[in-house]
Automatic annotation (TrEMBL):
Keywords: Metal-binding, Signal. Residues 271-282 form the Tyrosinase copper-binding domain. Residues 1-22 form the signal peptide. It comes from Blyttiomyces helicus. One of its GO terms (molecular function) is metal ion binding. Gene3D superfamilies: Di-copper center containing domain from catechol oxidase (1.10.1280.10). The lineage of its organism: Eukaryota, Fungi, Fungi incertae sedis, Chytridiomycota, Chytridiomycota incertae sedis. It holds the Pfam family Tyrosinase. This is Tyrosinase copper-binding domain-containing protein.
């Protein structure tokens, strides 16, 4: 199967949802172009990357002051706000029935790139199933200083910092790598690996990423949103875990040194691959919705792994009227308002305290 080129994805689904869910039919007026990263021209890739750097150059007022109104020493940018907001919301957006509806977060980001930084190109995604045989050589790991997203980090001596690509130190201007503010200033980190290396029977992270697996999941989850979403969560986690570093929420070494503790964080959007990975999950969700009419009407709502069952925010009975929060990025939205049923991302329990694991990693 070839990747779709210039596929049109409705931002708002135009189908009327079942009346039992009380979802109003929304007319589809706006479309966004999506394109697989490797099929974008070098100029388009550079444009997208430059727009992200543009968001990094805008100070974000709300995050730039402490509680007493004093200015923090590190600049906090609009891009930081996306990572910060994701971290704040981590427990509410993963491993529950609303995971896929968090497509709205992706849309808010895409809109920000366009409205604030003038981005006009396609919305990129990474179809990792094309690279499943050898994820390490995937074209998203490109060292080019202006249109590449960088390769693996140096985990032996540099805390997994990425040393090339547009988010590494500049070989031309000798400028240092862009700095991310949370949870402590650091630059992009990756630790590509197929295994946690903890259990003898561990499956490699690419086992769930083949087109055969996706097709199987799609066939076996007809009309069963819960089942589909559960599989998508596993697939989602495998990519986060394969890339490691920031995308897996592993804490920078510096944090441990300065704060004296390890940290569990949800700053995963710092790796720009976050947007490409979630763009692909969104595409797969859309494919699933279109694979069978039963899928469009399916929205089963129990939480996958409620962390605290008595916390009313972790309701077991998901409804399309559920309210999604976006920290300071947007006013809250109802699930049915962001297009129903929709996609987005799931995951992650962080482990880093004790045990053999060095740092937090995304796990199911
Ligand atoms: C996973 O990656 C390994 C090593 O690159 C490869 O041998 C294996 O075939 C891949 N698995 C799948 C399902 O493609
Ligand atoms: C990189 O990942 C491997 C495999 O999970 C892990 O053993 C190692 O500790 C990680 N390295 C760093 C520096 O986090
Ligand atoms: C499809 O999924 C089922 C259940 O997860 C599994 O038992 C079966 O082996 C899978 N088939 C293929 C072809 O991967
Ligand atoms: C679970 O949530 C409830 C309601 O918010 C709270 O009162 C309780 O302390 C929480 N329990 C734990 C173990 O966090
Ligand atoms: C979920 O729905 C069932 C029956 O529809 C009800 O008995 C139960 O109390 C509900 N649970 C919550 C947490 O709302
Ligand atoms: C974001 O924060 C600013 C400053 O606190 C506030 O004025 C604004 O209303 C907030 N926006 C949203 C969408 O929450
Ligand atoms: Cu994710």
């Amino acid at each position: 199967m070839r990747p779709s080129v210039w596929t049109l994805f409705p931002l708002i689904f135009s189908l009327a949802a079942p009346p039992s869910l009380g979802v109003a039919a929304t007319e589809c007026k706006t479309y966004t172009h999506r394109r697989e990263w490797r099929l974008m021209s070098e100029a388009q890739r550079e444009d997208w990357i430059s727009s992200i750097k543009c968001l990094m150059s805008f100070e974000y007022e709300r995050l730039s002051f402490d509680n007493t109104g004093g200015r923090l020493s590190t600049m906090q940018s609009i891009y930081d706000e996306f990572a910060f907001a994701h971290d704040q919301l981590n427990d509410f957006v993963h491993m529950n029935a609303y995971f896929l509806s968090w497509r709205a977060f992706l849309h808010i980001f895409d809109t920000k790139l366009r409205d604030t930084c003038g981005y006009k190109g396609p919305t990129p995604y990474w179809d990792w199933s094309l690279d499943v045989q050898d994820l390490f050589s995937a074209p998203v790991f490109d060292p080019h200083p202006t249109h590449g997203l960088g390769t693996n980090g140096n985990c032996l001596t540099a805390d997994c910092r990425v040393h090339d690509g547009a988010f590494g130190p500049s070989p031309l201007s000798e400028a240092p790598a862009p700095i991310f503010a949370h949870p402590i200033p650091h630059s992009l980190r990756r630790n590509l690996t197929l295994y946690f290396g903890e259990k003898p029977d561990e499956k490699p992270f690419n086992h769930s990423l083949s087109q055969t697996h996706i097709a199987n999941v799609t066939q076996r989850s007809t009309g069963d949103f819960f089942k589909f979403q559960y599989s998508m969560t596993q697939i989602h986690n495998d990519v986060h875990n394969f890339v490691g570093g920031d995308l897996a929420g592993t804490c920078p070494d510096q944090y441990q040194l300065v704060q004296g503790v390890d940290c569990a964080t949800g700053f995963t959007p710092y790796d720009p691959l976050f947007w490409l990975h979630h763009g692909n999950l969104d595409r797969l969700y859309s494919n699933w919705q279109n694979a069978d009419p039963l899928n469009f009407n399916s929205f089963s709502g129990i939480t996958l792994h409620p962390k605290n069952i008595s916390d009313t925010r972790f309701t077991r009975n998901a409804t399309a009227g559920h309210i999604l929060l976006f920290d300071n990025l947007s006013a809250p939205k109802h699930v049915n308002e962001v297009g129903f049923p929709t996609r987005w991302f799931g995951e992650r329990r962080l482990e880093g305290q004790g045990g053999g694991r060095k740092k937090g990693r995304v796990v199911t």
